[in-house]
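Standup, Tuesday
Yesterday: got the pipeline producing structure tokens again.
Today: sanity-check two examples.
Blockers: none.

Example 1:
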Amino acid sequence: MSSARRVVTVDSHFFDELDAILGPTRGPNGEPSTTDFLLSDLPSIADAFAERFDDLYPVYPDRDDYRFLVAAGRLVKAAVVIGQLVSDGSIVLFEIEIDPY
């Protein structure tokens, strides 16, 4: 059973990866920018980590504090996000891979 909603933060490395994948501006054919993703797709990803962390897939068999989510997005085909439960009970999202189109 899932625990109560947790606080979710995003590490600067996550933003660096997102910028490298999507870029600061929309593409010539309307491809999403980093800001588009942050406003459209990240909220539901953060909600999934906040509400269902214990139900997400473990990244490592011997570490329950690392979990990942594979999610379909509104603007991207799919995103894989890794988060870690830290000592204060919050979750830090620190890695993302995207299949953008």
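Example 2:
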Amino acid sequence: YNSIMEDLKKEFIVDEKAYEKEKIPEQIRRVLKYCKVAKEGKVLLEKNNFTIKDNLKIILIARFLANKLDESISGEVNIGEIVASMGTNNKESLITRMKEIVDEGVVKRPSLGVYVIVPFFIDTSLDKFDKKTK
């Protein structure tokens, strides 16, 4: 019984930094299907049939992961960068969608007009995108 509990503890209670590091290479390979990140940080979305909210999540996931590879690229994304990556002038609509994603708890807003993905939701979001492309 003790060894079962000890194994469960090792599986369930993790070192967050080590856990993230372990997951990052696979997450980058998965998000590559949907976008690339330019050296200055702009997320270049591949053509897809996703919703605006899905594409916003892809942008935030891409920037978070790009920051893990290159610290000169911020893991946080401001609304101007989101507008540039989405290739639209409809800033108000994007702000509204971002607010919905923040309300879902998938994204945090550290300051006004600045967003960052909650790392816990990267895998579940990528799973949803992969299902949609099958």
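Quick observation on example 2: The two ends are 42 Å apart (CA to CA). The mean pLDDT is 93.
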